[in-house]
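Researcher: Following up on the earlier apo prediction. This time include the ligand. It's S-adenosylmethionine, with the SMILES given after the sequence.
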Amino acid sequence: MHDKSMPCTNYFQIIGEVIYASIDSIAQSRHISYESAHKEVLKYLVSNSAQWNSGRQPIIKYEDPLCRIAYLYGIVSVNANLIEFIFRNDQELSEFVDQTHADNGQINICAFGGGPGTELLGMAKWLEKRELGYPVILDFLILDQIKEWLESWQSIQRKMEFRFKNHYGVDRANWPINVSRGFCPIDITSTESFGNLGDVFGQDLYILSYVVSEIFDFAPT
Ligand SMILES: C[S@@+](CC[C@H](N)C(=O)[O-])C[C@H]1O[C@@H](n2cnc3c(N)ncnc32)[C@H](O)[C@@H]1O
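Model: Understood. Below is the ligand-bound prediction.
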């Protein structure tokens, strides 16, 4: 039976489930308590924030899974909301997405620095709320130098699809979106990396959300 009372894509619920499972498994693998691991996450929230506000290129230790959890915990929902806001309010963009989907049967999206899954969440919420009556096919190409992000991206996708299954049934034709994804762990500042990537520049949409600010120092005022 489909649960029609469930709300639309809920960032905090999806991210919360991903975070809880991740902290638990990291605590176990490091032989520390859940509480100690959680404290480390909170420390990263503070130190990352100081880095982003430093006026220099921030040094964020995304290699550490607890740092990635801090990003999921503190930032992803806010940025996903921004992505959703942009798609909802930019009529030209919305029409382009609809027309491209009508013409090609899917939208190819390249997310620079899209490792955490923010772009997926924001677009999922925007499309689900529109209640189009057919699944929009989203094919993501993620470019992010931290390959470990793939784990949480996949985890977000699975939690989201689990909810779709409960809410709309097992037939994906009744879901608001169907998602596929490729992940390229490259440094986007290195032109050599792009040489091996084939069709990067043949996508329909390119999203650069809070990635440029991690690459350059702020311009002097
Ligand atoms: C502030 S996060 C933004 C994540 C997401 N786009 C969002 O809006 O929440 C920056 C992302 O860019 C990635 N990144 C930073 N420098 C990069 C580089 N030179 N090449 C590839 N990815 C990079 C980081 O791993 C991280 O996932």
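Model: The chain has a mean pLDDT of 93.
Researcher: Noted. I'll compare it with the apo version next.
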